[in-house]
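pinging the channel bc i need a second pair of eyes. not urgent but kinda urgent?? the chain im working w is below, pasted from the shared doc
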Amino acid sequence: MRRPVGWISQDVIEITGTGWAVGDRIFLGDDNIEHMKNAHEDDYLLYGDKIEDIIAVPDFLAKHPNKVSVEYIKIFGADYVLVAVRGSSTGTLYVRTLFVMNSVKVDVYRKRGYLKPARSSRA
């Protein structure tokens, strides 16, 4: 089972340079939820219900350096919560994972210029 949780915005296209189209839908499937529960259980329990908000109004956007993947990052208190979206072999976009970035990863993203402020952000 899968459900839509967002869509690709013009902001995402301009900032990340993906070949996706504005309006492409993003889905969340049962397999993806199971992965998040197994790999990042505590993070999923805290922020799993915020996936749609993170995609709709991220504070930062990043493009994964080695994959065709967009990372939506939202700050909740001291937590930088990352939601990764990637295309399947059929081209359908799915939320692949959600986790809280550790401070080392945040620093690396800052130093390498990966964290791009999202224009749609309220921050």
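so The mean pLDDT is 92. and Helices lie at 10-16, 30-39, 41-47, 51-56, 103-111. — does that match what u expected or am i reading it wrong
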